[in-house]
User: What shape does this take?
Amino acid sequence: MPGQDQLLFPFHRPVGERLAQRDVAIGLILAFSLGLGLLFLHFYTAFATQATSLLFGNVLAVDVDTVWTLLALGLGSLAALAVISRPLLFASLQPELAEAKGVSLRLSSILFLAIVAVATAECAQIVGVLLVFALMVGPAAAALQVTSGVTRGILLAAALAVAEAWLGIAMAFYTDWPSSFCITALSVAVYLCAASRPSRAR
Assistant: This one.
């Protein structure tokens, strides 16, 4: 349908676009600020171990049992998200019409927040609060700047998150800088590059 993208992405409207860009900017600035904090702690002689563990985690300190636990929780989160994906997408993009069709906006919001809470909790001890912000907000925001299709946006955001994570770990290996900072810096850089593209190229 010619108007499908406009129906699915009302951010083309001036007010919605400004609000979306403001939320993205807040999330990315927060994540990058935390990344700078980790970098400064890295160079500080009295290293704050507890604060660093909570906020930034350690992506290289994952044992086998943790991997299996994360795999089970991740598959459960994906299954739950697949079940509510259609009503959630409808309620997110056209809330008035979805409510008129009988979709419970409150229930959709609660279920989605529960899934996000599980995903955040399972990752926070490994990647820390910083990377939870960076990998949830950055790749999705960059994908939104590049494509307007829902499926393509999801796949692109996932691919960007994986690429940023691996490249950040590689950068940390060669520079001896914290991996969390490297991944966050890449996330911000990718978003800035995507946002700086001419609007007609998106």
Summary: Residues 105-146 form the longest helix (42 residues). Residues 4-197 form one domain. The chain has one domain: 4-197.
